[in-house]
Design goal:
- This protein has 5 helices and no strands.
- It has 81 residues and is mainly alpha-helical.
- The protein is globular and about 25 Å long.
Length: 81
């Protein structure tokens, strides 16, 4: 049964800049929003990222550590429509 489940598991993103940092569900959430670089990620607020389906507190804490190590920060103001 384990072999069967193994073949059904999704393949991790090959070019994702957060591969190995975030769980696959969180990486998918970022991919759905076309966030594929640290620069694009900095254009979002922490609250906006947490609202994405598949992104939780654990993923956010990992992401904050990664961003701090790379001297990157979330946007502090929501975008005006």
């Amino acid at each position: 049964m384990a072999k069967c489940l193994k073949t059904m598991a999704p393949v991790p993103f090959e070019g994702c800049f957060l591969k190995g940092i975030l769980p696959v569900t969180a990486m998918r959430a970022l991919e759905r929003e076309k966030i594929d670089s640290l620069e694009k990620l900095c254009g979002y607020s922490e609250a906006e990222i947490l609202q994405m389906h598949g992104f939780g507190r654990n993923s956010m804490s990992r992401l904050k550590i990664y961003m701090k190590n790379h001297q990157a920060y979330f946007s502090t103001h929501p975008e005006a429509d």
